[in-house]
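Design a sequence for this backbone.
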């Protein structure tokens, strides 16, 4: 359960995942994101109807615009915290230097120099979904009814936004335990030990 600073002897590249350049993977991730968002929106609707979002439109004060501004600011903060959560787990498993960036479509955290074992990398990928999923769930239970869907939209962003992480976890989990993953933030390269005869 750690990272390596260089690729150990006997390892070769298996494949690379680049969700920006590989159209097939990008389509799979986007479809998964939509499905996850719809499923969880329906679940949340069972607790508080989604029409609650529209109630503030009839208000004569600025409640609707206040909530909209809170949502926008909170979502920007969430994106930053999402990537910091990836970085924190990378650092926990031994990464010395994590770099951050934004491509115009995606924010990312990655390490050019570290190779994570399968167990560690799955935790790196899953951490934001789990941590912020729990935080938003607690908030949804704690806030007044009128703010339920504001937090709910953040939760949907967390779940749908983690579709890429979920897809990567699935692809990595199908490989042998001996694999190592290098995640630069823009692409993930999977390596495995060459099998020796005898």
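Sequence:
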């Amino acid at each position: 359960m750690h990272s390596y600073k260089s690729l150990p002897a006997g390892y070769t590249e298996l494949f690379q995942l680049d969700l920006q350049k590989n159209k097939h993977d990008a389509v799979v991730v986007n479809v998964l994101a939509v499905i996850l968002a719809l499923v969880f929106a329906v679940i949340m609707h069972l607790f508080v109807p989604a029409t609650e979002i529209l109630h503030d439109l009839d208000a004569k004060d600025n409640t609707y615009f206040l909530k909209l501004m809170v949502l926008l600011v909170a979502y920007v903060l969430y994106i930053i915290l999402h990537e910091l959560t990836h970085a924190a787990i990378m650092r926990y498993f031994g990464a010395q230097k994590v770099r951050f960036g934004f491509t115009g479509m995606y924010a990312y955290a990655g390490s050019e120099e570290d190779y994570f074992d399968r167990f560690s990398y799955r935790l790196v990928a899953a951490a934001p979904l789990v941590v912020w999923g729990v935080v938003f769930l607690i908030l949804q239970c704690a806030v007044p009814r009128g703010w339920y869907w504001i937090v709910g939209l953040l939760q949907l962003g967390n779940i749908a936004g983690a579709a890429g992480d979920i897809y990567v976890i699935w692809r990595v989990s199908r490989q042998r335990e001996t694999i190592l993953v290098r995640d630069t933030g823009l692409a993930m390269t999977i390596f495995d030990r060459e099998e020796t005869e005898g």
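The beta strands are 3-4, 11-17, 99-102, 107-110, 115-117, 180-183, 188-193.
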